[in-house]
Amino acid sequence: MCELLALSSSRPARLTFSLHTLAEHGGLHGRSHDGWGVAFYAGNDVALFREPRPAADSPLVRFLETQGPATALAISHIRHATQGGVSLANTQPFVRQLGGSAHVFAHNGDLPGLEGAVPLDRGACRPVGETDSALAFCVLLTRLTALWLDVAPPPLEDRLLVLADFAAELRALGPANFLSADGDTLFAHGDRRLQRNGHAEPPGLWIRQRRCPPNDASADQDAGIAVRTDSASVVWVASVPLTDDPWEPLTCGELVAIRDGEIVSRDRSLGARDHAF
């Protein structure tokens, strides 16, 4: 399956060790070798890097580890193709503009029947590429549009309601682990993932928070980032734990909102709710 990684930090940080570790899953240690991408936020815009090739042997990945932009919010994805060919258009994360902000989306799972189950006004948002993930992103943006017409960013509670309903509909179709960001907040939804026993079971995502003291280079390296000299709070979300430190699994259906390296909302009850199309 695909590999997901997100970073939210209170201070600008540079992805280092964790990007390399995730890349190893994209061709060396895993089956995800059909493309990779990473989006670095800078205010309301993003610097997007993608390649439809294995990440593990990519010179661009190695370049970004040392020369990539510092950021307080980043989302990365390594692809194992299930729908759509190996191409740049099908390579995540996907980026679209809404309400004056770049919105980023990355998904892990397979959503058969999505197009027939979830109506989409293709005049409002047309997917680029052939994947179920790109279609799901357009569905999400269409539902968020009304919120972003008047206020940017809209109230967090309103965005969470839209995301919770969206996530429940995806879970009814198949594994629906996803990361979404709008420049203000990072959202992570955990579901099921293909485990080593061959079954799709939770956890689908893991989370880890760490507070790095000022000038503590060892802590920064262990966390997989290079942080500026000020102290920082950092939250990681990933498909699998990337370090030997304690990581916490997300429960099936859990939706987490993260801002500036702090968890601001965490709803573990979503998986028990009964949603229908």
Structure notes:
The protein is of the alpha+beta class and 277 residues long. The chain has helices at residues 17-25, 59-67, 114-117, 132-148, 156-171, 217-222, and strands at 3-15, 36-42, 45-51, 71-78, 94-98, 101-108, 177-181, 186-189, 193-194, 200-201, 206-212, 225-227, 232-238, 248-249, 255-259, 262-267. It has a single domain (3-272), classed as Aminohydrolase, N-terminal nucleophile (Ntn) domain (Glutamine Phosphoribosylpyrophosphate, subunit 1, domain 1, 4-Layer Sandwich). Helix 4 (132-148) runs antiparallel to helix 5. The radius of gyration is 17 Å and the shape is globular.
CATH structural fold name: Glutamine Phosphoribosylpyrophosphate, subunit 1, domain 1
Order of helices and strands: EHEEHEEEHHHEEEEEHEEEEE
User: Averaging pLDDT over every residue, what do you get?
Assistant: 84
Overall 3D form: globular
The total of beta strands comes to 16
Helix content: 10-25%
Q: What low-confidence regions span 5 or more consecutive residues with pLDDT below 50?
A: 272-277
Q: Just give the CATH class.
A: Alpha Beta
Tell me the span between the first and last alpha carbons.
Answer: 26 Å
**What is the subunit organization of this protein?**
single chain
How many helices does DSSP assign?
A: 6
Can you identify the CATH superfamily? Aminohydrolase, N-terminal nucleophile (Ntn) domain
